[in-house]
Amino acid sequence: MRSVMIPLAGLLLLFLAPGGLCQGCAVSEKERPLVRDLQRKMIYSVDPKVPPNPSILIALRLAQDHNKRIEQDMLKKLSQDAVQRAAKSFSSGQVALHILAQRASCSNPRQISANNSTINLVQLLEQKFKDELQNIVIHGNPLTNFYQLSLDVLALCQLKGRLSPARASILLSPDQKKYYLSGQFSVDTAAVAILAQICLQTTGRPLPPKVTKKLRENVQWLVNKMLAEKKNDGVIGNIYSTGWAMQALSVSSRYLKPGAWSCPQTLRRVLEELPKDTFNNPMAASQILPSLENKTYLDVRRLTCSKDPDNLPLSTPQPTTPTSQPPTIRVTYTVFSDMNIIINNSINVTVPQGSVFFKVMEVAQATDPSKFSFTYTVTSWGPYITSVQGLQADNNQRTYWQLLSNGTSLNQGAGDYVVSQGERLEVRFSTY
């Protein structure tokens, strides 16, 4: 769920290989250069000014080819970041991803050492998860969202942390409030929730029949909803949510009717996008890479680092210097809210061709800060808008700033979406 940050009786009864993709859905050797190029782009595009991203390391660890030096450097930076943030702002979903990144790197997330300190990330997540549940009791909403709660369940399940399967089955049960954003079904959240509940079903520990039944019902509902989002070309939701969807559906074969989903068709559609730089955002790339590699997040617990090849060499990317100033374009930018505070301000903005939405917001703010001031936080997806003209997004109120172009909600964030001449751009205060 990008704009908000983004969710049985035993193993032998599942008749599936947990973690593996459906048969016939692997990238061919002929197509492997596309995957290796994507890995290299992920590595090159990491911004040293931004906190390290555990999703990138998880994806690289799930890949077939490796650059051990890069992966070890990422692991070291993640450990330092985790120790530093443990006492500060560290959301439950971020802790969950850090745990999975450590486990994928064959490092013990219960004993992370850096800067002369040692922390237990699993214990920290157990407390964060407890705080999320408490906030639901008090306010009716989690501190974060159900995408992050699903990550929490997935990480605690894989690391055998303190987690009640019965409570998790109720927490992740069907509900529009959990799985919809501005009226749209969140494929990302549903996919992580499916992976989390498949994990609970495949731990090898027997579950009470009522819990087994509830988990099955949850997954079936989510799978059906996800399939309803499938396009004729194989894309599920949008191209950016398709990677998560592939992971979830590939481990849900018992819930799929024959012919309900063609994994090879979806894979072909994704491969078509790789040369177009559709996944140039490293976070977007990290969500699609596991499926290209015939893997899912459920494979994290089965990785053995000693067998990894060191076969992904990197070259120094050559900087490109523009030969001339790009032409400028003109767009209309609007800030709108009909909740709490009424706002409806518009401005014409001129920016260089190739500019992103965020640049338009910056120019508008510099031109008239009284009407277009905004704040943001840096996330793994890039800048996330937290307030505009003093009106703050609030998880407990389930409000956020939605990005639109010509009246249509955007699939990309403010730092990625490239604007065009004459476009009508809008940030709208919305609920989810």
Keyword list:
432 residues, 41% helix, five-stranded mixed β-sheet, globular, Ferric Hydroxamate Uptake Protein, Chain A, domain 1, 2 domains, signal, disordered N terminus, transport, secreted, 15 helices, Cobalamin_Transport, Glycosyltransferase, three-stranded antiparallel β-sheet, alpha+beta, 15% strand
Summarize the structure.
Keywords: Cobalt, Cobalt transport, Disulfide bond, Ion transport, Secreted, Signal, Transport. With 432 residues, the chain is α+β, with helices and mostly antiparallel strands. It has 15 helices and twelve strands.
The radius of gyration is: 22 Å
Q: Output the CATH topology of the largest domain.
A: Glycosyltransferase
Secondary structure tally, helices: 15
SSE pattern: HHHHEEHHHHEEHHHHHEEHHEEEEEE
Secondary structure category: alpha+beta
Choose one word for the global shape. globular
pLDDT < 50 runs, ≥5 residues: 1-24
Proportion in β-strands: 15-25%
Q: CATH top level of the largest domain?
A: Mainly Alpha
Mean pLDDT comes to 91
Helix content: 40-55%
Number of domains: 2
The total count of strands amounts to: 12
End-to-end Cα distance, whole Å, is 11 Å
Q: Strands of the largest sheet, in order across it? A: 6-5-12-10-11
CATH architecture of the largest domain: Alpha/alpha barrel
The main β sheet shows up as: 5 strands, mixed
Family: Belongs to the eukaryotic cobalamin transport proteins family.
Subcellular location: Secreted
Keywords: Cobalt, Cobalt transport, Disulfide bond, Ion transport, Secreted, Signal, Transport
GO biological process, one term: cobalt ion transport
